[in-house]
Every structure is written in C-alpha cells, then in structure tokens.
Design goal:
By secondary structure, the protein is an alpha/beta fold. Among the domains are: about 200 residues, Rossmann fold (3-Layer(aba) Sandwich), CATH 3.40.50; about 130 residues, Rossmann fold (3-Layer(aba) Sandwich), CATH 3.40.50; about 170 residues, Transcription-repair-coupling factor, D7 domain (Aspartate Aminotransferase, domain 1, Alpha-Beta Complex). A hairpin with a 5-residue loop joins strand 5 and strand 6. It is globular.
C-alpha cells in the first residue's frame, strides 16, 4: 500500500528486516519522484547594510561642488574656526577670484557635488554675482515646466478607464510556490505593488528598476500570469533576439503545468512561422508572446491585449517609443530596467511616475571579483583554465565582427583544451539559436561574442567574463556585461583588459576606474551617478533638460525638480502653497558645533555624517540620529549635542516659516519676514512676557544659562508655528465665506491666546 506523509527530508531510505532482507518500508521524497523540489526554507541572512551616510560619500577635497545660493565652487576640505570663543567646523569652498565661503556644517545639505554633461571643468562662480541667480532661475522655470508636463500625463492616465484585474486565483498561488528560489523582501514588495496597480481601474504604467540578476523577470512572469488568468493577452517586448529566446525558455518552463500558450516572435522564427503567430495573436489563440521590435510592426494586432512588459525601453528607437506611447493609454504597462536611477531623481519623480526599486541581492549572492588591467595572454589563460577546472564556462567579449575570428585563433592557442564558439549579430537566426542552446547545455566552454550577450541573459554555469578592449565600452555597458556572471552561488570573476593606460582618454580611464572601484552588490546607483558625470544626465530627463543640468549640475537640478513637483501637486489638490521659504534658514547660535576628531577620527566619515545630519527634516529623524551616534560611536560629546540642537532649531524654523535664528545685541533674534502681515499684539499675548515681538522679529533674552534659553527657544518656535498655522486656517476659512462676512474674522487669531 502507498501512504502519503507530509514532512521534510533531504532524501528517502529503505528499511530492511535483517533476518531475511525483506523490505519493510521504502520511503521516497517528492524530489526523488518528481525530479525537482523547492529548497527548504532557511533563515535568510540579513544582508549587511551599508551605513546610511555612504550615499554622501561622493564629495572629496578638490571636487567641484554646487551651493544652492552661491553656485559652483571647489571644495577644499573641513576647517575648524574659533568665533567668539566657540569652536565650529565649516566646509571650505573656494570661488573665482579667490573668494572663500565657509559653510556651517548644519548647512552641509546646501552643497551637492557638481555633476555635469562632460568631463570638462565647470566655470567657477564669483560670490555675489548675478550669473548664478539667473542660471538657477532658468533651471527652476524648466523644472516647473517638466513637473507640469509629468503631472499632466499622470493625471490623464488616472482618468482613462482601464481594466481592473481580479484578485489572485489558486493557480497563481501554485505558480508562485513553484519558484525555485526564495524571494527577497524587495521582490515581494514590488510584486505586491504591481498586483495592486493591476487591480485598479486605471491603466498601470510602472517602472521596475533593479540591478542585474535581482529578480525582475520573476515579477514580470507573475504579472503576465495574473493577466492571462483573467483571459487577457500579454506582450513582452525585449531589445534582442537572444534575450527573447531566453525569456521564452523561462516562461515556457515555469508555465508548463498550466494551460497557457506562450510564443516567441523574432527573427529566430521563419517568415512562415511568424505569419502563423501573427494570425494566432489576432484570433486570441496565444496568451503570451515574447518578441523584439517585430511586435511593434503594423501587421501585429491582438484580440484582447491586457498587459505589455517592456524590457530595457531605452534601447528601442524613437519610432518604437511613439508606438508604445499610444499603447500606454490603453493597457497596463510594466517596464523593466537594469539601468539604475539615482536616488535624488527617484525622489523627485515620486508621485508623478510609479517606480519600484529592487536593491536587495538574492541570498547567497557574492560580489564579482573584478580585475582591470592591460591585456596579458598569460592572465587570460590562467582565468580560462581556473574556470574550466571547476566545471564552469567563460564569456569572452570582443566587439568587432571583422576581427573576432583572429581572437578565436588566439584563444585556441592559449587554451587548446577548450571548446570555443563564436556568436555575433550578423549570424543567421538558426546559427545563433543553436550556439546559445549548446552553451546553455554545457556543450561549449568559451562563448566568444560581441555585446549581444549584454542584456539579461542568464547562464548560471558561466562565471568568468573576459572583456577585450574594455576602454571602448560605455560605463553602463561594462556594468551590464559584468552582470552576466555571478548569478549563481559560486564566486565569479570579471576581467576588463584595455590598451596601454597612457594612451587612454581621461573618459576611458574614469570608466575603468569606476567599474574597478564599485564591485559591491547593488553598486548600480553609484555607477548611475558616475555614468552621468562622464556622459551627461540628459538621457534620464530628455535632451531638452541637458542645458539646464549643465548650468546648475544634476544634483541641484533634481532638487529644483523635487520642489516644482511638490508645488504643482499642492496646486492640483487645491492646497494653498506656503510662502517661498525657507529652504534657506540662517541659524547662528553661540554654541560650539562640530564632531570632535577623538569621537570620529576619519575626516571623510565626519564629512559624510555632516552631510547626512544636515538633511534631517523631522524631529523624529533627529532623535533617531542621536540614538544611532550613541550606539555607533559611544556617549555623545557636547559639541555634537549642540550640532543636533542647531539642526533641531533649523527644522522647527522651517516648519514655522522663519527666515533666521541668530544672536544679536546679546539676545536671540527670530527673524520672520511675514510678521508684518500678522496681528503682532495678539502674537505678543500668545507668546508671553519673556519675549518681545517687533515689526519683523521675535526677540528672546539670553541672560540665563545656556540650557534654559535653549529650552525656551524651542518652545517659542513651536508656539509660533501653532499661531501661524491658525492664522492660515482662519484666512482660508474667511476666503471661502461670502463677501459680507469676510470682514468679521479680522481679529480671530487673537483667540489663540
């Protein structure tokens, strides 16, 4: 008899009676019966998080920087100055004509690294000149226009009726259970976001941005299956025929247990077969089609298209993108990209573009060991033999079809024991398909190819990459190529060989240095920002924005765009926007503010911490920062307490629409330009006798101990914020009332006291 038992065993066993060797029990696991099993759940190791301030690691002494108010200068390092008996640390920035600016550390957020369109040095501004003000104003106008355009597109899409997919079915749960790996937290979050979008009645247009090999394809597969379960057709558009073949294989294998018809439309299919596939799409007999730009041809139509998945949209031409733009308003669209988006741009586009980021590496993934150096035959032979000795395979990339067979002869001499095949885009579909299948099945040791292997291909057994003439590739190309290896749990190696270093252009040197430096998992964000430094930032936002990015730098431009988007969104919601303030609040209090060198000895780390601390917005974030500093570096010394206090005052001042908090004539002056339009009599009563309210400021006596006036300053700012909020509410209420009642509320704010 057969009995089914639920449990977990690595392998089965046979129980035999010793006397007569009679088999009493034969236990088989599901893996032995079906040939496959889902890995047993294991406690997932928490990936070691980089310290949050590593994002600010990009400014070094000698770098060009942009100050929000004063423009482009050169960062000369951290300096300590003694003013009025108080030691404070400043960021020193040099401008044209020897002008010098000392930036207080609590205003370090006003500095950003200058990222421009090419490797030419920018022109330094002079302090106080109008050129910078004009450039910033022009960039702000351009950012406003772009924000409006993005929001209009977003609003239009929200009003277009789309198809709302139902909740998941039992089959979807079965498909997800068959995934042979453990999903990362990021993957699960993004899958949830995509399903939520699909279940809404307006068309989805979501971009999924994730490093190479981080599981974007699985997200796409689950979205496609969800669409098919509701009777809709799915089109997946990819940039190359080889990638189409790979996705086709993946989708076919994963969906084999279900009644789903998957097809591929690319030049790997004969013209007759292509015509048959096109007809079946029209008749609704194909559920999922994966193809190249051939899918965008005029003869291709669908019976009931519900979802389009686009892999690496930036690699399609202008005409293709125009066709896609039309589809975007009709069906759900999911775009996948391994080109990372810089965090600042991601934040700027929040709320106008649905973006999901996968930045957690799969469990057990190891960084790729990267070597950059001059071409060397002995090193090439060593790299090949080391990979072959452990049963692996090698990618060798040479990007010139004319000379690729010369390279083959060279490799045959270096490694005569290796089986080598050549692949390039000028081969016939049949040849390419056979080569890729042979490589996937392990019948080939070295795949010598052009960059046709650049995108998305997944060969887990190939874990050594050798790139010839690496100086001829773009940075993102080098990064994508490196992503072809290291997708299994074994250590992978990437070798980027170049011509003699002296003969390389500064651009090529910068690209190679960057790829060598950033080898850690998830380093794509640093690569993206560095890539823009080298080749310009226009690709991310459209060419027409490049000029403004060039004038003010990418970091500054994204700040202006963030501001423009927030303002436009507030206007769309009918909210009254707060006065144009105070992203620049002047804080100058008689306190020693710095991080002592005996508390944090490393200068670069102190700079990163300053820049991170200066970006803290809320009081809760400041409290968390204090707890983190104590945990990482020990009990907080007084100068650091003072620095955190100044940042707290800056945050409160920004919330209360205050322009400056400074020491003047032995008192603390809280300057408020909007004070002239308020009822100062009622404000004085509300704040009490310990302060004095004048025409443009609130004055606080400083004749008590430091601790006492610090507490009182916080209280005054908090009370003024409440008063100012009540004034705004009263004004809005009055504006909404009839004209004859508008005069009745003139003195209402006084009730706050």
């Amino acid at each position: 008899s057969i009995t089914f038992v639920q449990g977990s065993l690595a392998e089965g066993f046979i129980l035999v009676r010793q006397e007569d060797h009679h088999v009493l029990l034969h236990l088989l696991t599901d893996a032995e019966i079906f040939g496959w099993s889902r890995p047993a759940p294991r406690r997932q190791r928490k990936a070691r998080q980089a310290a949050p301030e590593t994002f600010f690691a990009d400014i070094k002494q000698g770098d060009y920087v942009v100050h929000l108010d004063y423009g482009i200068g050169k960062f000369e390092g951290l300096v300590v100055r003694n003013l009025g008996g108080m030691e404070r640390e400043y960021l020193l920035v040099k401008y044209a004509n020897g002008d010098t600016l000392y930036v207080p550390v609590h205003h370090a957020d006003r500095l950003g690294k200058w990222i421009g369109p090419d490797d030419a040095d920018p022109t330094l501004n002079r302090l106080g000149e109008r050129t910078w003000t004009q450039a910033r104003a022009a960039a702000q106008r351009a950012a406003d226009e772009l924000a409006q355009e993005l929001l209009d597109l977003y609003a239009t899409r929200e009003t277009i009726p789309g198809h709302a997919f139902p909740a998941d079915t039992e089959w979807q749960a079965e498909l997800e259970a068959s995934f042979p790996y453990h999903e990362t937290e990021d993957q699960l979050r993004v899958i949830g976001e995509v399903k939520e979008d699909m279940e809404r009645s307006s068309p989805m247009d979501r971009l999924i941005c994730g490093d190479v090999g981080y599981g974007k394809t699985e997200v796409a597969l689950r979205a496609a299956f969800k669409a098919v379960m509701d009777g809709k057709q799915v089109a997946m558009l990819v940039p190359t025929t080889i990638l189409a073949q790979q996705h086709y294989t993946t989708f076919t294998e994963r969906l084999a247990p279900f009644p789903v018809t998957v097809e591929m439309l690319s030049r790997f299919r004969t013209p007759t077969r292509q015509r048959q596939i096109v007809q079946k799409l029209r008749d609704g007999k194909i559920d999922i089609v994966i193809g190249t730009h051939r899918l965008l041809s005029d003869d291709v139509s669908f019976k009931d298209l519900g979802l389009i998945i686009i892999d690496e949209e930036q690699r399609f031409g202008v005409a293709d993108k125009e066709r896609l733009k039309k589809w975007r308003n009709e069906v759900d669209v999911l775009t996948l990209t391994a080109t990372p988006i810089p965090r600042t741009l991601h934040m700027a586009l929040t709320g106008v573009r649905d973006i999901s980021i996968i930045d957690t590496a799969p469990a057990e993934r190891l960084p790729v060991e990267t070597y950059v150096g001059e071409a060397d035959d002995s090193r090439i032979r060593t790299a090949i033999l080391r990979e072959l000795d452990r049963g692996g395979q090698v990618f060798f990339v040479h990007n010139r079809v004319q000379s690729i067979h010369i390279i083959r002869k060279r490799l045959e001499k270096l490694a005569p024991e290796a089986r080598i095949v050549v692949a390039h885009g000028q081969m016939s579909e049949r040849q390419l398909e056979k080569i890729m299948i042979d490589f996937a099945e392990g019948n080939v040791d070295i795949l010598l190819s052009t960059t046709i292997i650049e995108s998305g291909l997944d060969f887990p057994n190939a874990n050594t990459l050798i790139v010839d003439r690496a100086e001829q590739f773009g940075l993102s190309q080098l990064y994508q190529l490196r992503g072809r290896v290291g997708r299994a749990t074994r250590r992978a190696y990437a070798y980027f060989f170049h011509a003699p270093w002296r003969g390389l252009t500064p651009d090529a040197q910068a690209r190679l240095e960057t790829i060598a430096e950033h080898t850690q998992l998830g380093s794509g964000y640093y690569i993206a920002v560095r890539d823009m430094e080298i080749r310009g930032a226009g690709d991310f936002l459209g060419g027409e924005q490049s000029g403004h990015i060039s004038n003010v730098g990418f970091d500054m431009y994204t700040r202006l765009l963030t501001k423009a988007v927030k303002r436009r969104k507030a206007e769309l919601r009918g909210e009254q926007t707060s006065p144009e303030l105070p992203d620049n609040v002047l804080i100058d209090l008689p306190l020693a503010t710095y991080i002592p060198t005996d508390y944090v000895p490393d200068t670069q780390l102190r700079l990163r911490l300053y820049r991170r601390m200066a970006t803290l917005d809320t009081l809760a974030e400041i409290d968390e920062m204090a707890a983190e500093l104590a945990d990482r570096f020990g009990p907080i010394p007084d100068p650091v307490h003072n620095l955190l206090y100044q940042i707290r005052i800056k945050s409160l001042a920004q919330m209360a629409v205050v322009n400056a908090v400074v020491t003047e004539a032995g008192q603390i002056r809280i300057r408020i330009d909007e004070l002239g339009g308020m009822d100062r009599f009622h404000l004085q009563r509300y704040l009490g006798e310990s302060v004095r309210v004048s025409k443009s400021a609130i004055w606080l006596k400083k004749d008590r101990g430091t601790h006492e006036w610090q507490i009182e300053l916080v209280q005054v700012l908090e009370k003024f914020r409440l008063f100012e909020r009540q004034v705004n509410q009263t004004t809005r209420a009055a504006d909404s009332q009839s004209p004859q009642r508008e005069t009745e509320s003139a003195g209402t704010p006084g009730t706050a006291g």
